[in-house]
Design goal:
By secondary structure, the chain is of the alpha+beta class. The chain has one domain. Helices cover 36% and strands 23% of the residues. The protein contains two helices and four strands. A hairpin with a 6-residue loop joins strand 3 and strand 4. The longest helix has 13 residues. The two termini are 30 Å apart.
């Protein structure tokens, strides 16, 4: 999972396999998040400027 722009394992220490339904081949192992992972991601999103705010400032000619 990505949190604050970094790829990391989930603190839960568990993962889920995503398999090709036709061949049964494992395509990817997805780390599962716990409450701490979610809290950290949420806090980081509050600190980051939103993509829509950046688009609006570019359209209006505002500079940051």
């Amino acid at each position: 999972m990505f949190v604050v722009g970094e790829r990391r394992e989930g603190r839960a220490g568990k993962s889920r396999e995503d398999k090709n339904p036709y061949t049964g081949e494992t395509l990817v192992e997805i780390p599962l998040a716990n409450a701490e992972d979610l809290d950290e991601a949420y806090r980081a999103s509050e600190r980051a400027p939103s993509a829509s705010a950046r688009r609006c400032s570019r359209r209006s000619g505002a500079t940051s």
